[in-house]
């Protein structure tokens, strides 16, 4: 039975899941345990199945059958981690919302500590990784370089070495739900909305099971979403590069004139070739940058729904 109005709950936990059937039981057990102190005030655990190809959805249904705190949302295909979080944020009823991965790399046991910090008045408590266990040095180095680049390019300060492990309150949830963009880099969006944001440090564990779903291509997409979504500085590259090009061409011109008047030499070919090649390279690069932004404007202008829901269980409104 659906009713028109349901009172808000105290806590919602949102868990995006993509092929996580090996982690889900343990994930549910540990998160439920962390939620036990909030039974009276009311909580819900929202699993969002992001088009998994394994038994993830069957397990979510099974968990819902034995525990009505469990809610399941199921996408019609894989829409990506950001969309899974978005669907959870649009469906949740909690005054406070914990965002956590299904692979248990972020410890649910930190919840009570995060809740205490939020009692102190913060609107966002974000997990800051002081160490990452079990991640390849490639992942660590690329992640570090990415955050470094982003902090130089971005207009909002997105905290370094954080994932999406966060406790946020409903003011932040409303703000996020009012943002219509389809390229959803959630941690950047949370930084963008402002309010009071406080870190909590933790050691990132190894995955409970399986392997990361962030392939190199997905990582590039995330990086592009982050950079183009939160900075227009790459567009200004045109200005900086053209300035450098003018300086360089000035020097080349002097060199050509000096060779022409004093050395009588036919030096033309090498310098012409240099100018041609370098200006071509710059033009192509800038076309690429413009294309990237154009592509995104095109995507946004379609105003498509952000995701397509196949089915759901336990949702009460
Ligand atoms: N995930 C998702 N859709 C995707 C990729 C990942 O919902 O397309 C989920 C995944 O199940 C996990 C979380 O997002 O709960 C983080 O993914 P993962 O652990 O693979 O990323 P990493 O921790 O390696 O950055
Ligand atoms: Mg993970």
Q: How would you sum up this structure, described in words?
A:
The longest helix is centred in the last third of the chain and has 34 residues, at 268-301. This protein is of the alpha/beta class and 317 residues long. It has helices at 24-35, 56-66, 81-91, 111-119, 137-153, 170-177, 186-193, 216-230, 233-263, 268-301, and strands at residues 9-17, 43-49, 70-75, 94-99, 124-132, 162-169, 197-204, 309-313. The protein has an 8-stranded mixed beta sheet, sandwiched between helices. Helix 9 (233-263) packs antiparallel against helix 10. Helix content is 49%, strand content 18%. Strand 2, helix 2 (56-66) and strand 3 form a beta-alpha-beta unit. The model has no long low-confidence stretch (mean pLDDT 84). It is elongated and about 90 Å long. It contains 10 helices and 8 strands. The chain folds into 2 domains: 9-231, Spore Coat Polysaccharide Biosynthesis Protein SpsA, Chain A (Alpha-Beta Complex), CATH 3.90.550.10; 233-301. Uridine-5'-diphosphate binds at residues 16-18, 20, 50, 78, 80-81, 84, 101-103, 105, 212-214.
Bound heterogens, unique: uridine-5'-diphosphate, magnesium ion
DSSP summary, beta strand count: 8
Describe the largest sheet: 8 strands, mixed
CATH class of the largest domain: Alpha Beta
Q: What's the arrangement of strands in the largest beta sheet?
A: 7-5-6-4-1-2-3-8
In CATH, the homologous superfamily of the largest domain goes by the name Spore Coat Polysaccharide Biosynthesis Protein SpsA, Chain A
Strand content: 15-25%
Stretches with pLDDT under 50, minimum 5 residues: none
Number of helices: 10
User: What do we call the CATH topology of the largest domain?
Assistant: Spore Coat Polysaccharide Biosynthesis Protein SpsA, Chain A
Under the CATH scheme, which architecture of the largest domain would be assigned?
A: Alpha-Beta Complex
Helix content: 40-55%
Number of domains: 2
Subunit organisation of the chains: single chain
Helix/strand class: alpha/beta
User: Which of globular, elongated, flat, extended, rod-shaped describes the shape?
Assistant: elongated
Mean pLDDT: 84
Which series of helices and strands comes N to C?
A: EHEHEHEHEHEHHEHHHE
Cα distance, first to last residue? 10 Å
Rg of Cα set:
25 Å
